[in-house]
UniProtKB/TrEMBL annotation:
Keywords: Hydrolase, Membrane, Metalloprotease, Protease, Transmembrane, Transmembrane helix, Zinc. This is Uncharacterized protein. PANTHER family: NARDILYSIN, STROMAL PROCESSING PEPTIDASE, CHLOROPLASTIC. Residues 109-129, 1230-1249 are annotated as: Disordered. Residues 1238-1249 have a biased composition (Gly residues). Belongs to the peptidase M16 family. Residues 325-405, 921-1147 form the Peptidase M16 C-terminal domain. InterPro entries: Metalloenz_LuxS/M16 (IPR011249), Pept_M16_N (IPR011765), Peptidase_M16 (IPR050626), Peptidase_M16_C (IPR007863). The chain crosses the membrane at residues 35-56. One of its GO terms (molecular function) is metal ion binding. It comes from Triparma strigata. Residues 163-313 form the Peptidase M16 N-terminal domain. One of its GO terms (biological process) is proteolysis.
């Protein structure tokens, strides 16, 4: 895999680093390392994350109550501000969140809970939830003015943040300050099981179903969280309009009462034996489901990083033998010990009336009693809890934030090496051996270096790994940001991190770069109670030393020489631009994003400012920031690397290094502990020199060249036309809600203004064909896919080099992603809509060009002047080889790939490109396969953003309208089957491409994957229409439904004749089936933790498939698969769709659609295809009529649709299972058997389903 970061990936990662400046404010939350282990196509994952404009990752590998996946990442973008919260009780002389009301808790603590039960540790005078340990700052940061917080007499704390977006909704999160790190030796996994039992056993939680609410829970090291996202008003027809749920007021009921009822019931949960058994089975199934190789790598990383404390041995999922053994009394004991009103904090964010919410809080939570819970505990149970609580006083939980886990850390900082040790015999940090443990991590000693430093090394090898990865860490104290001085330092630190990331990426741009991924960062982690500075890289195993030496050398260069002036100007300007975008967003940032950042910021002790306040502070900080201040932060960030070199002062604590790679590596230079240490020390002693600047263009297209093109091409607007019956749109008028036209060169253009994401935009270019077009034109299999990846790996055009184009995109905050799927080649761009690439601040400001203009310049040059490079193809091939190998070492990926292959008769267009096909593609074939589809007459551009529509259209006309109409026709002419090309203007009424006929009879398939850990996955699949109802054999689902209805009304015919009917019907069916699978396969049958149903959802290709996926133990896989089949059969027989099912699904589908409509990416995706002949039935009505069409669907429609789909016959089924590798011997792989199985967590924020 001789390839590095692609040009556009560098842009994505680099802008990712810049967005961290804004979105995280001073606190940057650590992202999951597992993400980068998924594949070399990490940029695509990151791109998908980044287009959620407001919050950047806060990503824990936690255990959540409904669905858990180490591969799923919730990214929460902080509001750009550091956080010190403003409250009604705010004391201007104090610096921390809840500063005043915490003091009130202290005053009240002696008046309450007067019994034999001592107050919970969080309630004591010494340490409390939300306690700030920060002294009164000399220059305090301003605080958000609308946050309200308080505490009830029983110790129950809450915080309310009014927020406008989305209107009519709110979120409530109940945070219990107890997680897996609070478990005793015999309780490993009990925090998670208690969460399941408490919430899944709640009858009041069930009242939220069908109201358009989403609710879930998750457990982590440091806390357990239960949450509900709900509409403000109870929907009509729910029967909750009486005074009980409306606070005694007449009129529509309030959902806040129902939500609080559900959360309050968690605090007083009764543990029924039946519910305990259901949730025990769900947790055991969850252990199997999450145990992917990425998850196991993450376990190794966390266990080594935190070897000195209990985080290495208290993963949320727990121990299987213990989970199987617990009784109702065990769960009740844990619940009553920790689920007390003085050990929780309720967050409410949304479109709410604060006094009204406070009244509900008093009503629903005021009656909770710690004394009542304490009365249910036996004396020996109290003694154990009190013994644990006494030791907590010596940890970061008590000394810095009650939100942190009860741990101590060995800090990787300069100065005297010191770690607090417990004076008692209680082994709080689990350094002794215990019978219940696997081999402990105490056999991973640190290696002292002659220079005085130390490295804690570990090497993990596994059959399922195909690449080498290095994870190098230094643990530091979280520095709370509460003063102006703190904020300036945080800005400097973020500028350094952004510059370092871009340097690393550019250094990997040679013809044979050693990296396939590299990232350097420092992020705060409340779940671990520390800040972690990390270097993460991936490389092919044979080149691991080269990759490590280059990356470590770059960090040393940064630590010794710092940044250049131009780098500080570039990334400082981007930081200010980003802060301005968020300030413009204001309280239209989503509730979930605001709440996630609020929780994380409170946990870390930062100041909580409004976006406007943060922008002002950012501008002030940048005006005063000096190069010396920035380079001092660079020195601090890199001191653990510099300190490994001879003659340098080492840090006080260890540098943690984990190397991961293939178990059976035939490399002549394998990585072991000694080799890893030698390579790190050699890299730290490598001679380095100061960074040299690259000249970055302010514009990619000169005014002279553009004017000349306008004179020759004479661009004009033409009317737009559609296949859904919408009349042609005028060429000279801006229309609402969309302006849809064509340019005189044939390019279809859709533009709409949206201020949902302030000062942000999304542009999508689609070219019909994709891999199906590749096949039709006679190109080699995989040529179009490899060509698209080669574009992603390249980036030079015109007179500009790749490096110059990369930095142009970085300066202008552009993100680019190029893909080829079965039906389309797509180019996605995220861009700012304001002037970007600015240099200087205040009176010295030199403005750059508008972001809309910058992105259109890039689009124009890609279509008409892209340079195809052999080294870019080489990196693309290496990426595809790696992805293919990874796919076939992943149980889920391999099984899904094989069943789709069987159902398509082995058609290569529908499966991954294999090694032989990859190697066979030439640069010319890749180039021709892509460019023959990028024809102006065939492509469509959709542009959405916070801009003036008329101004955007003028720029489109100027830049895209000057692309010659015959551009790229020469590539199509050379296609082997050029005469079979599908051109526009054919007036298509049905898809040109279709999936192959389903091979019959259908059959059962069995797959095996070598893996020592037992896992299984099962599938039930069959034929289905595409998103618009078109079937593989011809015809449309809507027509079949109408013809099968024996007595249709006139309205039935009109409804089913609407072009959007089939799409809406399929969305509703998918939602209903998923709910049934949960009820039957998980709740009733207790066979799985997670089962889901989805359609492939093709748009241009006729036909498709539905796929029902269920994870289970190997022993229950067959039974779980049969249960899925029974669920589908029941829908058309014994348990047909009911009106309640339909109404509930409608609320979910509409709420999801309306929520996603607030993002520019979703809007641009919906707009793609509106003017394409290749996508019949898709037109403007698909946006304007969506909600009305969903509401018009009837139960009869869906029953007829299920009958037409025939979900009970001709079903393909498959089971994928792991088997032991040949000659496998447990614990004999050359490395200690660290906590094995599904027992880990990623770094950052919670994962939810």
């Amino acid at each position: 895999m001789k390839h590095g970061r692609t040009c556009w990936e560098i842009v994505i990662i680099s802008v990712h680093a810049l967005y961290a400046l804004r979105l995280q404010g001073p606190s940057i939350t650590r992202p999951s390392i597992t993400i980068m282990l998924l594949s070399v196509r990490i940029s695509i994952v990151m791109f998908a994350v980044l287009v959620t404009v407001y919050f950047l990752p806060h990503n824990d590998l936690t255990v959540d109550g409904f669905s858990f996946s180490a591969l799923k990442t919730r990214h929460k973008r902080p509001i750009t501000s550091p956080i010190t919260t403003t409250t009604k009780l705010h004391d201007s002389n104090s610096g921390g969140f809840f500063a005043k009301f915490v003091n009130e808790i202290q005053e009240k603590s002696t008046e309450q809970t007067k019994s034999n039960l001592p107050p919970h540790p969080s309630y004591s005078r010494d340490y409390q939830p939300n306690k700030s340990v920060i002294n009164i700052p000399s220059s305090p940061l301003p605080s958000h003015t609308t946050t309200v917080s308080n505490t009830l007499p029983n110790g129950f704390s809450y915080c309310i943040l009014p927020n406008a977006s989305p209107s009519g909704r709110f979120e409530a999160h109940l945070q219990v300050f107890t997680g897996s790190s609070s478990e005793l030796q015999h309780q490993q996994g009990l925090a998670h099981l208690t969460e399941h039992v408490a919430y899944m056993g709640s009858r009041k939680r069930e009242r939220l179903f069908g109201t358009g609410s989403q609710t879930n829970a998750y457990t982590d090291f440091h806390h357990t969280v239960f949450y509900a996202s709900c509409p403000v008003d109870i929907p009509d027809g729910q029967g909750y309009t009486n005074s009980v749920f409306n606070g005694g007021n007449a009129g529509k009921g309030k959902m806040v009462g129902l939500a609080f009822d559900a959360l309050a019931e968690v605090m007083e949960a009764s543990c029924e034996d039946s519910r305990l058994e259901k949730e025990r089975q769900a947790v055991l199934s969850e252990m199997t489901m999450v145990n992917t190789i990425e998850y196991r790598v993450e376990c190794q990383i966390l266990s080594t990083l935190h070897r000195e404390n209990r985080l290495a041995k208290r993963f949320p999922i727990g121990k299987e033998d213990l989970i199987k053994s617990w009784t109702r009394e065990d769960v009740v004991e844990f619940h009553r010990t920790h689920y007390r009103p003085d050990n929780v904090l309720l967050y409410v964010v949304g479109d709410v009336d604060v006094p009204d919410v406070e009244r509900y809080i008093r009503e629903k939570f005021g009656g909770l009693s710690a004394e009542k819970h304490g009365a249910e505990l036996k004396e020996d149970q109290r003694e154990k809890a009190e013994s644990f609580a006494r030791e907590v006083t010596r940890t970061v939980k008590s000394e810095q934030s009650w939100h942190f886990p009860p741990t101590v850390h060995e800090w990787s900082e300069k100065g005297e090496r010191c770690r607090d040790e417990s004076e008692s015999s209680y082994d709080l940090h689990l350094q002794n051996r215990y019978d219940m443990d696997d081999e402990t991590l105490n056999n991973l000693p640190e290696v002292s270096l002659p220079t005085g430093g130390a490295i804690r090394p570990h090497v993990f090898k596994h059959e399922l790994l195909q690449s080498f990865s290095l994870h190098l860490f230094a643990k530091r104290r979280i520095r709370p940001i509460v003063t102006v001085e703190d904020f300036v330092a945080s800005i400097a630190r973020r500028i350094v991190l952004a510059a370092m990331q871009i340097r690393l990426n550019v250094s990997a741009r040679g013809e044979s770069p050693p990296f396939t991924f590299v990232e350097f960062n420092q992020l705060d982690s409340a779940r671990e109670g520390c800040a972690v500075c990390s270097l993460d890289l991936m490389a092919e195993p044979a080149r691991w030393r080269e990759a490590v030496e280059l990356a470590v050398g770059e960090i040393k260069r940064l630590g010794l020489y710092g940044l250049t002036i131009s780098e500080v100007e570039r990334y400082g300007g981007a930081c200010l631009t980003d802060a301005a975008q968020v300030a413009a967003q204001g309280d239209r940032i989503s509730h979930s994003d605001q709440l996630g950042y609020l929780m994380e910021t409170v946990s870390c002790g930062h100041a909580f400012m409004s976006p406007e306040q943060s922008y002002i502070q950012t501008e002030k900080a940048l005006q005063s920031l000096t190069l010396e201040q920035v380079n001092e932060e660079a020195r601090i960030l890199c001191e653990h690397i510099v300190g490994l070199a001879d003659g340098e002062e080492p840090i006080g604590g260890p540098v943690v290094a984990i190397g991961c790679g293939p178990k059976d590596n035939a490399s002549a230079d394998p990585c072991d502990k000694d080799a890893l240490i030698d390579t790190l020390v050699k890299a730290a002693n490598r001679e380095v020199y100061p960074e040299e600047d690259i000249i970055v263009p302010r514009s990619l297209v000169s005014e002279e060249d553009l004017n000349a093109s306008i004179e020759v091409q004479k661009p004009e607007w033409r009317s737009g036309s559609f296949t859904d019956g919408t009349p042609d749109t005028p060429a000279d008028k801006v229309t609402t809600p969309l302006t849809l036209r064509r340019l005189s060169n044939g390019i279809r253009v859709g533009v709409t203004a949206s201020d949902a994401e302030s000062q942000r935009g999304h542009l999508r270019l689609v070219a019909p064909g994709g891999r199906m077009g590749e096949k039709r034109l006679g190109f080699a299999p995989g040529a179009a896919a490899l060509g698209a990846r080669t574009m992603q790996e390249g980036g030079a055009f015109g007179c500009w080099t790749r490096e110059q184009v990369e930095l142009f995109c970085v300066d202008h905050l552009l993100m680019v992603e190029i893909n080829c799927n079965d039906e389309f080649i797509t180019l996605d761009f995220v861009f700012p809509t304001t002037e970007v690439g600015n240099i200087g601040y205040g009176d010295e400001l030199k403005a750059g060009i508008n972001g809309c203009e910058a992105v259109l310049q890039v689009v124009r040059e890609i279509v008409r002047g892209f340079k195809w490079e052999a080294d870019a193809l080489g990196r693309a091939k290496a990426s595809f080889h790696s992805t293919y190998d990874g796919l076939y070492k992943n149980l889920e990926g391999m099984s899904a790939e094989k069943i789709i292959g069987e159902m398509t008769g082995g058609d290569q267009s529908f499966v991954s490109v294999g090694h032989e096909e990859i190697d066979a593609v030439t640069l010319d074939e890749a180039k021709h396969a892509v460019m023959s589809q990028l024809l102006p007459s065939e492509i469509e551009v959709s542009m959405v953003g916070d801009f003036d529509t008329k101004e955007a259209l003028d720029l489109v006309l100027k830049y895209l309208g000057t692309i010659p109409a015959d551009a790229n026709e020469e590539f199509l002419a050379k296609a082997p089957n050029a005469d079979q090309a599908v051109r526009s203007g054919s007036g298509a009424v049905a898809p040109t491409y279709t999936v192959p006929p389903l091979p019959l009879p259908a059959r059962q398939l069995d797959f095996e994957l070598e893996d020592p850990d037992p896992r299984a996955i099962a599938y039930v699949s069959g034929a289905a229409p595409n998103s618009w109802g078109f079937l593989a054999g011809g015809g449309n689902l809507a027509d079949q439904i109408q013809s099968s209805d024996k007595n249709p009304s006139t309205f039935d015919g009109q409804r089913r004749g609407h072009p959007l009917f089939a799409r809406c019907a399929l969305l509703l069916i998918s939602e209903i089936v998923n709910r049934r699978l949960f009820s039957n396969v998980r709740e009733k049958r207790q066979l799985t933790y997670d089962a889901n149903f989805k359609f492939t959802g093709y748009e241009q290709i006729g036909g498709g498939f539905f796929l029902c996926t269920v994870t289970a133990s190997k022993e229950k896989a067959q039974e779980a698969m049969e249960a899925c089949k029974e669920t589908l059969e029941a829908l058309v027989s014994s348990q047909p769709i009911s009106n309640d099912n339909l109404e509930s699904a409608k609320r979910v589908v509409v709420n999801r659609h309306e929520g996603e409509m607030r993002t520019t990416r979703y809007l641009s995706e919906l707009m793609s295809g509106l003017q394409l002949d290749a996508v019949p039935k898709k037109g403007p009505l698909s946006l304007t009529d969506f909600n009305a069409m969903v509401q018009a669907i009837t139960v009869k429609d869906l029953q007829l649709a299920l009958a037409a789909l025939d979900v009970t016959n001709n079903l393909y089924t498959a089971i994928g299972k792991t088997i032991l590798p040949k000659d496998y011997v447990e614990g004999k792989d050359g490395s200690p058997a660290l906590t094995r199985g599904a027992v880990g967590g990623t770094r950052g924020g919670p994962l939810t389903g």
